Amino acid sequence: MGIWCVEECRVWSAADLGPAGLLAEVPYYPSRLPARDGQTHETVAEISVLLVHEQVFERYLVVDCARLINGERRQYLIDLTATQSTYGGLRWWFCCPKRPNGNVCGRRVAKLYLPPGAIYFGCRSCLGLAYECVHESKRQRAFRAVRKIRRRLGGADDLTEGFPAKPPRMHLATYTRLRDKAARALEWRSAPLRAQLKDALARYETGRREWLQKIQESL
After folding, report:
1. Between the ranges 106-115, 135-144, 195-204, where is the mean pLDDT highest?
2. Phi and psi at residue 115, to the nearest 5°
3. Within a domain: 183
4. How many domains is the chain partitioned into structurally?
5. In the chain, is it the N or the C terminus that has fewer CB atoms within a 10 Å radius of its CB?
6. 110 with 14: CB under 8 angstroms?
C-alpha cells in the first residue's frame, strides 16, 4: 500500500483532453492540461504539455512539470492510445509512464495521478494509491454516508443541524428512503457509544458503593 491516498493527489483525466484541444488533428499543439484536486475535483493547477500527432492512433504528450518543493523541472513523454467507441468515434486513454521495475508500465488508464511533491504522473497501481474510505473506521464510514445524503438533499454536513427538508420535485418515497437510511446509519453509529456510556456509569456506581462502604466501616 502506498503512502498517499487518491484524494491527496492531483489528477489528470482523459476526459479533459478534448476541451484542452489535445485531440486536434495537427502535428504539434501546445496547451495546458488541468490538474484537478483528488477530493473536490476542482482545477488546482494547469500543467504545460505539447501534443505530438504523428499518425491517427499515434499521439503522445510532452509534459513539462515542475516539483512544487524545490522548483526542479522535468520533461517526459506520456503516450496516448485510442479505442473504438460503442457508438462511433474514438475514446482516448493515457498510457502510464511510470517505471516501477525499470520498464514503462504502459497500462491504459483514464486517469493519471501526481502525488504531493512528485514530478511524474502514474496510475493507481504503480503509485500504490488507495481511497481514504479504505482506511476509515465503521463509525467514520457511517458519518460519511449521512453527510452524503444531507448534501444530496441540499443540507449542510454538520450533523448537529436538523435533517434537511424534502427538496422540490423529489418523490416522497425517495426522500423517505434517504431519511430512513441516514437514521439507521446514525443509530448504528451511536449504539457503541451508548454501550460505552452504560459501562462507564456501571463502573462509577460500583466504585461509589465501595467507597461509601469503606467510609461506613471506618466510622
Report:
1. 106-115
2. -65, 160
3. yes
4. 2
5. C
6. yes
* Domain of 158, in residue numbers: 136-218
- How far apart CA 96 and CA 195 sit, in angstroms, is 49
Going through 38-172 in order, the beta strands assigned E by DSSP cover 43-55, 58-66, 73-84, 90-95, 108-109, 111-114
The distance of Cα 60 from the centroid of its chain, to the nearest Å, equals: 27
Question: Is the model's pTM score more than 0.85?
Answer: no
What is the distance, to the nearest Å, from the Cα of residue 163 to the centroid of all Cα atoms in its chain? 26
Q: Which residues contact 214 (CB under 8 A, 6 or more apart)?
A: none
Three-state secondary-structure class, residue 185: helix
Q: Is residue 58 part of a domain?
A: yes
Q: How large is the average pLDDT for residues 87-93?
A: 84
**Number of CB atoms found within 10 A of residue 2's CB:** 15
Say what the pLDDT of residue 21 is: 81
pLDDT interval class at 67 (50, 70, 90): low
Q: Is the CA virtual torsion 143, 144, 149, 150 positive or negative?
A: positive
91: nearest Cα among 57, 48, 129 = 57
H/E segment holding residue 36: strand 28-37
The identity of residue 204, as a single letter, is Y
How far lies 70's CA from each of 8, 46, 66, 89, 101, in Å? Answer: 19, 18, 8, 42, 26
C-alpha cell at 139: 463509525
Measure the CA–CA gap between 80 and 52, rounded to whole angstroms.
Answer: 10
